Amino acid sequence: MTQQLLPCVEINPTAAPDACVIWLHGLGDSGHGFAPIVPELKLPESLSVKFLFPHAPERPITINNGMRMRAWYDIKSLDFESRADLEGVKASAEQVEQLIEAQIESGIPSERIILAGFSQGGVIALHLAPRFAHKLAGVLALSTYMCEPSLLSNEAKDINRDTPIMMAHGEQDEVVPVFMGNAAFKTLSECGFNATWQTYTMQHNVCMQELNDISAWLQTRLK
Fold it and tell me: What confidence tens digit (pLDDT) does each residue in 18-32 have?
């Protein structure tokens, strides 16, 4: 039985949308956190892009003494090999997959859908996109890492191997160290995915130069 779709902050263009960006937030944030960047991207109205910023469910987070907060998965330790709870990642990836399928059913082709994620949201994007059954327009993976990278080579599907994956990371990131993001980039590249890697002089956040680069990348992907 199909579960209820994730609630989202939805930002629509003036004309009927023919493309969609689904943007997943980080730990303890909500869909409202990244919604204000849409005007900052300064996308031309001719693109007619809908933005969806889903809210992750609330769950107890082990490293935060079991405090409940919005999260795509539990973090049981800060150990680099097992930071992301695989079962939680799989469950959230399934929920996001249903959200993408709903956009396809609404008339937006999968090739006009971009999956974006910051930090925890990026983990979900990097887990789902290589395993997704439909062709996507692109993937944005910001200040993030990969859950169980050793599984990718056996589980990856071919359909999105040439789909552009833009990875960006802050050189001074103390939450997700830059080497974790770079390791994910290398895993994708070794598995034949079309990933690019860019670092910025920033911490665990988004900077204006990065937003400008994301805007240019989105316009290239969705033109």
Answer: 999 999 999 999 999
Whether the Cβ atoms of residue 203 and residue 27 lie closer than 8 Å to each other = no
Which residues have a catalytic role annotated?
A: 119, 173, 204
The pTM of the whole model exceeds 0.90: yes
pLDDT in tens, 142-162: 999 999 999 999 999 999 999
Q: Mean pLDDT across the chain, nearest whole number?
A: 95
Look up the CATH superfamily of 8-222: Alpha/Beta hydrolase fold, catalytic domain (3.40.50.1820)
Strand intervals (E) in the chain: 8-11, 19-24, 49-54, 58-61, 67-70, 113-118, 138-142, 165-170, 195-200
Question: Rounded to whole angstroms, how far apart are CA atoms 143 and 170?
Answer: 7
